[in-house]
Amino acid sequence: MLERSEEFSLADIKAALKKQGMSVANIQPGDALFYHTGWGSLWGKDNAKFNSGTPGMSDKAGDWVVEKQVVLVGTDNWAVEAIPGPDTNNFAPNHQKFLVENGIYIMENLDFSSLIAARVYEFAFVFGAVPFKGATGSPGRPFAIR
Question: For the chain, what is the domain count?
Answer without folding.
Answer: 1
